[in-house]
Structures are given as C-alpha cells and as structure tokens.
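Q: My labmate handed me this sequence with no annotations at all. I'd like to see what the chain might look like in three dimensions before we decide whether it's worth expressing. Could you predict it?
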Amino acid sequence: MKAAVLAGVKKLIVKDIPTPIPEENMALVKIKSCGICMTDYKAYSGARKNLDYPMIVGHEFSGVIETVGESIRFFRPGDEIIASPVSNCGICTNCRQGLTQYCKNGAVIGGDGMDRIIDGAFAEYVLVPENSLYYKPENLSFDAAALTEPLAGSYKGLIEYSQLKIAEDLVIIGAGSMGLLASMIAQKAGAASVIMIDVDDWRLNFSKNCGATDLINLTKKDPIQAVYSILPKGPDIVFEAAGPLSAAQLAFDLCRRGTRLNEFGVTTEGTINVSPAEIHWKETRVDASFSVYPRVMQQSIRLMEKGIVDPNKIITHRFNLDEIEEAMNTMKKSDRIKIIINP
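A: Here is what I predict for the chain of 343 residues:
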C-alpha cells in the first residue's frame, strides 16, 4: 500500500510499504478521508516529542472495511465505518469506570494522548481494533465522518464537562477547527452569546457561519474590555481552544465569579500565572478535556446524522496522499481551517 511515512522532523515520505494483515480482533480499513489535526502537524514539525520515527500519523478518519480478523464479531468487509483513534482493553479499572481514554493497556491510532502509538491513517489502509469501529450512517459523507472524533471532543469538553446550558453566555478563544465545532454545538445547544476571540480577521469572519455572535480580534482590542462591554456581568463559560500559553492565561483573566473555564486547547508545555486565592474567592470552576470515549463518539455521530451539526462547514482544503507535504505546509496558513486527505 501507499503510505505517508514520517521518517523525521519535516521528513514525510510517500512510499509503498507492505499492507498490514489483520489478526484476531483487528479490521483492515481502506481509508476514504482523514483530517489533519494540529497534533499531526506538531509531529511533522518537530514540536511533538513523544513519538518514535518512523511512524504513520493521522487519527481523524473514515473508510470501508477491507478484511477482518478471525475474532471480529460485528463488522464485515464492505461496511462503511467511522473510527475512534482510542483503542482500549475494556478490562482495566479506568475502562470499567468509563474512562477509556485513560486505558492502562490502550493505544492511540496515529494520534496523541497515550503512551503507545500505533500507525495511523495517512495511508491507503490502516488496522483498527473492533472496539474503535462505528457504523457510518448512509446520509453522512466520508469527509464529514472523518471529523467525528474532533466533533466528539468539542462536545465532550463543552457539554459533558463544562455543562453548557441554554441561554448561557460563552467565550471561545481560538477560531480554529475545535473552536468552530464548539461554536456550532453551542449555537444548537441554545447559548445566548458565543463570543469568538482570535488574532486573525479571516478566521473570525469565517466563524460567523459557525454560530459566533460577536467577534474580537485581540490584536486590535483589549479582549477583556471587549468581552465585558458585550457581557457586563461576564461570561458563564470560557472555552480555551487555541493552544498557546497566552490563550490559557487569557481564559483565567476573563473569569468573573462563578465562571466555568475549560482549558481545552492547550497542549503547550509551560506555566502561567494563576492565583489559587483568586480561584477560591471567585469559585472559578476549572476543567479540561482531552481525547474521547464511546458515549461522545456515538453522540457526535448522532449530531451529524440528524443534521444538527455539519462539520463540512469547516473543511477548507482537500489533498490526495501524494500532496500531503503541501497539505502540511498549508497548515501554516491563516486562511485554512480543516484540511482533509483523500488517499
């Protein structure tokens, strides 16, 4: 099969390698669509250190089952599927508490967040454990289906963890793919205001089509003054979906008493200035959310199947596998949101 093998920092080589053979509870999936996540770009650029070269990244994918291992019970060749990148044992203490993203024996397919990383989906085929497979609804395109996991992540952070309620006021920091998915979820969940903060006017204007009610470019306005001019009583939730430490700091600085804060986007190493006393007196509800578990994957599929959220809105670029180097370079541009690889 053809695969984009990451051989080192900025060394992405498209070449023929042996097609893997599924054993036991694994299925061989022919990839139809795979999104590029910032964690994939960080692996490519060298910003990510927790991986060993050579490897194949790519964890937001959908496809068709080609062949299955002998222990597969519920899926057959020809089934159109969605995959979660999180593979779990189902037996360890964390799994049995429903926290499969903490599985002690698990692995992540081409992504981040677990100690063990197995080859991902920037290839023509990928091996997927049966418990990571979901049936793709017929009315869902493969491109949209590939974004099930990021949509599930945004849903998990905003709805299950931060518990957004109808008529609440929300501030989202970062008009990237995760921030825009969160904005679409918030709009459908009945948020009264969805204030989007970013440094780029193109992305801010793009967010108007994804549920944002107010836009703030923090390079042109003081973001705290701007937010409080719109919401004199302050935000109910601040959802940080940008990544830099400065965004994490801003999230805390925007909180009034009782604000719920989710440090959703920051994967950057380092520290910020936070006062425990201020958190105490403000009763700031600090949360974070990474990865996904089966319930939010299933809910994400339902959101798309019912036409409530359409992730096709955030797809701005498509490339084939041979163009993946160009696709990675496009990740550096401001006028892009989600990039899809169609092998």
